[in-house]
Structures are given as C-alpha cells and as structure tokens.
Amino acid sequence: MSRSQASTAPIVNALTIDVEDYFQVSAFAPHVDRSSWDTMECRVERNIERILQLLADADARATFFTLGWIAERYPHLMRTIADAGHELASHGFEHHRASEQDRDEFLADIRLAKAILEDIAGREVRGYRAPSFSIGKSNPWAFDAIAEAGYRYSSSLYPIRHDHYGVPDAPRFAHTVRPELLEIPVATVRMFRSNWPAGGGGYFRLLPYAVSRWSIRRIHARDGQPAMFYFHPWELDPEQPRVPGPGAKTRFRHYLNLHRMEPRLTRLFRDFRWDRADRVFLDAAP
User: Fold this and answer.
1) Tens digit of pLDDT for each residue in 4-28?
2) Residue 66's closest CA among 27, 104, 16?
3) 283 pLDDT band (50/70/90 cuts)?
4) CATH code of residue 157
5) 50 contacts 262 by C-beta, under 8 angstroms
6) Which domain holds residue 257?
C-alpha cells in the first residue's frame, strides 16, 4: 500500500468489552455483598455468546477485559473468545476499585487475574483495565504495579468529569506512563475547553446513537486518532434481574435503554472499523 493510500484508509478503532455480570458493577456494591455472588443468577455466558455472534456477523475483533472471577467459572467461554481471534485482557480478579486497595492488595489482585486468564487460554495477557477507571491522581503507584505485574498496556483512565471516576486533565490519547507501559484512555471529544465522553459505556445508551457516531467521526477528522470504545455484556440484557436497593440515579444509569443496545451496536459495527486494542495501539506503537 502506498503512503497516499494509507493516509486515506479508514481509521481502525479499538472495541473493548468489560466482562462482568450485572450484579458486579461498582454502583451495586453497597447492595450486593461479594459473599453472595455465587448465589446470584449469572447471565454473562449468554450475553457474551450474543456479543460473539454480533462480532462474527460484522467480521470485527475485540478485546475482552475479563474478571478473573468470571474466567474461573467459565473457562470454556474464555477459550471460545480467544479461539475466535479476540484478545483476552484483565479486569482484575474481583472488581475491586484500585482506589480502594493499597499497593500490595492491588498488585496481588492483578497478578492473580493475569495468571488465571493465561492458564485457561494459553495466551499472554498484555492488557489491563481498572474497574470503574479507578486510577487517578490519588494512586499513581498503580501504574508501577501494573508494569511490575507484566502488563504491556493499561486502559484505566477516562479524561472526563464524572461523580465516580475521571481525570479531566489527563492526556486524551495513548501515551507512555511507565517504561514499557502504555496507557490508552477511553475516547473523548474536546469542545468548549472540556473533554466530553465519546467512548461508550452508559453514555452510549443514554444519548442518541447519532451523538456517538458524530463524536467518533470528529475524533478521526480533528485528531487523526482511533477511538477506544467500551461496553458491558449486561447492557445487552434487558431481562436481567433487578437489584433491590439502589437509588433512582443508579437505576436510571443502569437500566435505561437496555433494549436499544444491541441494534445500536449493530449500527456501530457497520459504521466504523473495529479491532483488538493490542493490535490498534500496542502493536502499532513505534
């Protein structure tokens, strides 16, 4: 391919899935004790199988940031993901926020998750994402621990303002945070001297699809960069059991537009090109 052809080729974005079940989200932590997880109805397997079919239909590949807790219980699902050409990456073992652990606890957690995933799938795990993007100015030591655990990249920053996470003044695009460790933030657009979410999650369900499409196109046109996009398996599951106890805001964020998620993803996969995070960012790094 000539240089002129390469410059006009569509930008390939990174598609990522945070593999956790509906009862494991951070917003439900005050209402669902971890000791009860094994008594809950798990729905992650059927949801992942549906996602794999959507990806196959679109001929797209993705990165699955997976909890070690899930991998231990569904090893066959981990092997299915890897055998289909997708990347297995780590979301920690038990969805503990990095900001709620000390360094030793955090390092043990991410080492355990990496070892479990590698043992099950027989493939190196190079990527890590902190639950709830819980790395920021209060715990920069987490990047040292991620590098020490043997990961090659992290996707643990979301450079926006949010009541549960966010580092609004962090770099918006992939950058080196430690020797041999790349940080790949979730996509944002820059407008009115602020960063605005463009990388999926709840915003993809709450806002019209056209907003996400416009945002990714703007990142391509204005910044010339690929977008880092993410979602969760439970977001395709409008029939999931309702967790009792959360307030109105949490219920709104979690349950709104679940029935619209699958058709929106189908459009997203059609409108843009998608691949694994390691191939889009890590393998392309100089």
Assistant:
1) 444 567 899 999 999 999 999 999 9
2) 16
3) confident
4) 3.20.20.370
5) yes
6) 3-282
